[in-house]
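thread: overnight batch results

M.L. [08:02]
morning all. the overnight job finished for the chain we discussed friday. pasting input first so we're all looking at the same thing
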Amino acid sequence: MSRVTFKELLDAGCHFGHMKRKWNPAMAPYIFMETNGYHIIDLHKTVDMVDEAAAAVKQIVKSGRKILFVATKKQAKDVVAEMVKAVGMPYVTERWPGGMLTNFYTIRKAVKKMSHIDKLMNGPQFANISKREKLQIQRERSKLEKNLGSISDLSRLPAAVFIVDVIKEHIAVAEARRLNIPTFAIVDTNSNPNLIDFPIPANDDASKSIALIVNAICDAIKEGLAEGVYNKKDAAYNKDTAREEFDEDDDTPVKIAAIEDGADTEASLDAKTAAKVKKTKAVADETSEKTQKRKRTTPLKKGTSKH
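M.L. [08:03]
and the structure it wrote out:
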């Protein structure tokens, strides 16, 4: 079943494109028709592209990696911030700081500066600072929080970037392409879908259209996070179960004694433990033989006699 239906896309106005004179020829495969000087997007292809993008997003999140959302235009910033915050992903909705991906180390330093300011403001020495300096520190903290607060948990480069309006966020697209980071984006009829790995043809100016598509992607993220947690718990359970079974079956000294007494190896040991014991005995015998040989070949010290 598709994550979005044709009717939902139609009701949200996802089919409205830009004026014909502003179109990008690369969008021709995704355009259904032209009417009254405006292009109409083929929503059947939009349904398929949303499903394809959602499946890729789900696999990325399932592996425990982050997806960065970029939407600084007025129609999208509040919608994206609310939805993305609910799934715990980083986002940029105020201003794209140039070099955020290509110069990620410097951006991380600015994020760490926020934590240092927080420690200073919560410390006892902050009371001894003058009123003017306190105001400057608080203003700097507010500025950093506004621009970088939403990416404070992003400790390394994101695994993918989701963009609303490719033209407005062309710097983010260029940085992601330079670092070979997969890109997801809502592309309108004036955009170039060839720059995006997973383009979603739709209206990127209507808040309802943006909300519908971002909501579908966030649902895929929730599923990926749930499956990732389940797989981790399942792996931990299997590991603990295997350890308990090994501990309960760890009667190696008794089994070694049984082997030395001539007991049946297959009856008293499983294959793995028997191989381990056999290898241990072989190493011990080899070591003992080398020790005895060394004693026989060691020359006597002068002035001593062998009895």
